[in-house]
Design a protein that fits this description.
Helix content: 40-55%
Largest sheet: 5 strands, parallel
Organism: Smittium megazygosporum
Bound molecules: adenosine-5'-triphosphate, the ligand Nc1ccn([C@H]2C[C@H](O)[C@@H](COP(=O)(O)O)O2)c(=O)n1
Number of domains: 1
Family: Belongs to the cytidylate kinase family. Type 1 subfamily.
EC number: 2.7.4.25
Keywords: ATP-binding, Kinase, Nucleotide-binding, Transferase
Number of strands: 8
CATH superfamily: P-loop containing nucleotide triphosphate hydrolases
CATH architecture: 3-Layer(aba) Sandwich
Distance between the termini: 19 Å
Strand order of the largest sheet: 2-6-1-7-8
Number of helices: 9
Radius of gyration: 18 Å
Shape: globular
Protein name: (d)CMP kinase
Length: 264
């Protein structure tokens, strides 16, 4: 007998902690983790590799759509994170493009700087949403729990609870002050050895903060599916909370929701 799909939507601005929370809980609860931001990042990597970044031209956009259709994106557990920072010593989700592990490549600053140009194009958003929905229905590569009563999926991004899965079973909006987010992202990039630009020059905290503020602006003002709190989202400000505390809050709300469903 197939289990009922149980969708957890986690939205929030850049570096607010969505992936860290989702990755930890995916492993703990045996839920599939779908990182929608990683799909926009994969699209950006494909555009760079195929010299198609200039998507104002219809020819380029059509080609990009074809490439996205042909490309298989998968997400699965990678074991313990390669990140050394004690805050991020946790399981992490690996991202594969046609089987190639691109987890580190798509975290690079070159991708982060260009992803916003693709994320605002309606055709790219539609192709990305199609991939997100396919992934939600795909085989769970995470170790599911034998006692689980649901087929759980955690989907994270900017518009999951508002546009992609407006009927999600539970929604969270995770936020934090921009400076706290920039500090965490900077520490993470240093720990992963990814704090360099395309020329190999080091990138400092101020540049990361500037990028985060710029991406916040783009996310909030985009015409299609801008970043918004869903009316029924549980809002968590993580500025002064440890990762464990945030994970604890999200987990207890999910378990409460699951218990409510069992009673129905
Ligand atoms: N509450 C927290 N306290 C300390 N560090 C945290 C906390 N939450 C997340 N982090 C760390 O901050 C960094 C950014 O978090 P994460 O990658 O989860 O953000 P995100 O919202 O998924 O970002 P993006 O949308 O840009 O992918 C990671 O190194 C993560 O381990
Ligand atoms: N649902 C989503 C997810 C992501 N984006 C855009 C906005 C981000 O700048 C970019 C990369 O996401 P991140 O890895 O930082 O979560 O993708 C979006 O528009 N909608």
């Amino acid at each position: 007998m197939s289990l009922r799909k149980f969708i957890v939507a986690i939205d929030g601005p850049a570096a607010s902690g969505k992936s860290a929370v989702s990755e930890t809980l995916a492993v703990r609860l045996g839920f599939l983790h779908v990182n929608s931001g990683a799909i926009y990042r994969c699209a950006t990597l494909l555009a760079i590799r195929n010299d198609l970044l200039d998507l104002q031209f219809k020819k380029n956009l059509d080609r990009m759509r074809e490439i996205l259709k042909e490309t298989k994106i998968t997400m699965g557990p990678l074991g313990t994170s390669p990140i050394k920072n004690e805050n991020v010593n946790r399981p992490s989700t690996a991202i594969f493009l046609n089987g190639e592990n691109v987890t580190d490549q798509i975290s690079k600053i070159e991708i982060t700087k260009n992803v916003r140009f693709l994320a605002k194009i309606p055709e790219i958003r539609a192709a990305s949403i199609e991939k997100q929905r396919e992934l939600v229905q795909s085989k769970n590569l995470f170790e599911t729990r034998a006692d689980s009563k649901v087929d759980g999926v955690i989907v994270e991004g900017r518009d999951i609870g508002t546009a992609v899965f407006p009927n999600a079973d539970i929604k969270f909006f995770i936020e934090a002050e921009a400076k706290a987010r920039a500090k965490r992202r900077f520490d993470e990039l240093v720990a992963r050895g990814l704090n360099v630009d395309i020329n190999g020059d080091p990138v400092d905290y101020e540049q990361i903060l500037e990028d985060i503020l710029q991406r916040d602006q783009e996310d909030l003002t985009r015409t299609h599916s801008p970043l918004r709190k869903a009316k029924d989202a549980i809002v968590i400000d993580t500025s002064n909370l440890s990762l464990d505390q945030v994970v604890g809050k999200v987990e207890s709300s999910i378990l409460k929701r699951l218990a409510e469903l069992e009673e129905d």
